Amino acid sequence: MRHLGIMATLGRMAILLAAGTSxxxxxNRCKLMxxxxxxxxMESMRPVVAARIDGVPxxxxxxxxxxxxxxxxxxxxxxxxxxxxxxxxxxxxxVGGAFNPRIATAxxxxxxxxxxxxxxxxxxxxxxxGGVAGILGQNILRLADVDFDFADGVLRFVKPRHCGSEMLxxxxxxxxxxxxxxxxxxxxxxxxxxxxxxxGHRIEVMFDTGSWRSILSLDAARRAGITPGSPxxxxxxxxxxxxxxxxxxxxxxxxxxxxxxxxxxxTHLLIGDIDLPGTGADMLLGSxxxxxxxxYVAYSQNKLYFTYNGGPVFDLNGQHPAPAAAHAPPSATxxxxxxxxxxxxxxxxxxxxxxxxxxxxxxxSRAEYPQAIADLTRxxxxxxxxxxxxxxxGLAYWRSAHPKxxxxxxxxxxRLQPNDFEAHLARARLEMARHPQAAETDLDTVDRxxxxxxxxxxxxxxxxxxxxxxxxxVHQYDLWIDYHRHDVRLPYALSGRCGxxxxx
Length: 504
Fold this sequence. Notes:
By secondary structure, the protein is an alpha+beta fold. Helices cover 27% and strands 30% of the residues. It is built from 13 helices and 27 strands.
């Protein structure tokens, strides 16, 4: 979650929606103007879209929990963007606390069919990792209603016309759907807040695609009878968001979670000391929830519609039972979706290589590896020269414990795209234990190809250390520290560099 403590106007952007829309008509005057779908790739539970900063490719996380677009300070340096300081009274509050940001300005920013000139970004000290430049916030997403279909790898902007209070779950047909009233939501307070229940206790949830896993605050967990010392609760590491501190989290068994007539029983949730002041929220419903549902955010009505896709919602990497009884069947008095009698049917099911690859990546994010590999195989067959497809299937094979097949795909990806340093880094990790010399060659290639400011310098340093190349490790730590002096992970980098220097 990213939340603004004090609102301020940061300048105007010239924004142009892409031309060319399709139309969905209902039986009455209600009409949904559908903009072209925006491809979304699920990268380790993060919904990522392609963008361009001053004409240079970049990747952004779709973040419904952020009120504005953000870049990391390292990325601002990488793209050579001019920086200025926000007013001293202007601060941003995230899960890691509050800070006074800087502002980066790009001459031209293009993303999701939108073009912005003199685009401004708030600058966070923490890196977003994985080659991601920043996050795409509500200043862009609130231009229209937004239809999130992450399971099929797309989102689309929608403009309702003459729909009033009609139900807008147009894709549901005769299937049941859930509705959540969004309250305290406005242009000045863009957080998507609704009601839910945990173990029968009422809570407020924020729908936040920028949080890769849903997380319940410790205060709300205690009200529901759950503490870090409760039976079955186990440590789950630390969480990092905007702000200056890491948040310790635990995985906790939950008897029941309920939202919009959907009930999930015998599941597990992350709980942590997350800081959500000013929002009234007790919980972040993250991209795990969005992956398990088709979600339509109706800013036009202050409502959120969703249907359940099937499979686990929160226990994505566990072997726990799937959620019980999704929605109760709607009663006879429940109004049907406005677009039930659609003149132009809309489907996000994949039909080409790109679509199958995006769906495969979404399935891999949910640890559904057989389905993911099947879809990625179809994508590779349709586009045999696509290095990205081979890379993604290699990752899926690796995570599903098939290292030989993973290596074959990573080898193929690198043959097709020799300058793909992320593929070289993945192959180095895979080969480090069995063929350290080959892994070192890949590490040297990553060092040569990757931008100096890239976050991967930190894992690269650790891999050089694992290979016994301590001088190389120190060099990578030096590069990372130079561009991440205020990152919350700085103490770990300084400690790692100290150890590498001593070992060398």
